[in-house]
Amino acid sequence: xxxxxxxxxxxxxxxxxxxxxxxxxxxxxxxxxxxxxxxxxxxxxxxxxxxxxxxxxxxxxxxxxxxxxxxxxxxxxxxxxxxxxxxxxxxxxxxxxxxxxxxxxxxxxxxxxxxxxxxxxxxxxxxxxxxxxxxxxxxxxxxxxxxxxxxxxxxxxxxxxxxx
Length: 164
Fold this sequence. Notes:
By secondary structure, this protein is α+β, with helices and mostly antiparallel strands. It has 2 helices and 10 strands, in the order βββαββββαβββ. The protein has helices at 37-54, 115-128; strands spanning 10-12, 16-20, 23-33, 64-68, 74-82, 94-98, 101-110, 132-133, 136-141, 155-163. Strands 1, 2, 3, 4, 5, 6, 7, 8, 9 and 10 form a 10-stranded antiparallel beta sheet that branches. The two termini are 30 Å apart.
């Protein structure tokens, strides 16, 4: 899926089906205009870090963004981490969960700009196998982004529950 060697070059692993256990999460939830997505993520991670530290909660995963429905001008999402126990609601941070069961997964490699095509590839793969997609799906940000990194080094795991 690379595109002529530009800085937005991206690729994805082969999709696979995995079985996951449900997971307790600490999250910030909101319906956010697409134009404000980056600011929402930044503010959410700040609130999460403070709350998790004060409550001495152990983070068990990289950061994730869980999306409900299809994004349009706005997106309904939760940003957070899998944790060892439920967080006490504080400063906009609440308890959430990631679903268990069968999940279609692929790993997107490269800039966040290419995530849409990787999601579409996963949807097509599921459709070709007669698998029904769930209304929720999430991205796990395996590689923590930083201002000076090469976007081609980013790894984002795409997870889409299969409904029966």
